[in-house]
Design the sequence.
């Protein structure tokens, strides 16, 4: 984990890891360099992947 990038993540400025990009179902997925949260490529650019907890509804 990059310490400087982790600080940026705390303020909402995530940066994807270009070495860990993969294709799945026609979409590109990666992880953030600082916090290792999953990211997905949308039309607007790279966004954090929000996974709803099925138990909560």
Sequence:
């Amino acid at each position: 984990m990059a310490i400087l990038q982790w600080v940026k993540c705390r303020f909402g400025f995530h940066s994807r890891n270009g070495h860990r990009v993969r294709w799945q179902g026609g979409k590109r997925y990666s992880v953030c360099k600082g916090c290792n949260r999953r990211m997905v490529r949308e039309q607007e650019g790279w966004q954090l992947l929000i996974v709803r907890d099925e138990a909560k509804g």
In short: The mean pLDDT is 83. The chain has one helix and four strands.
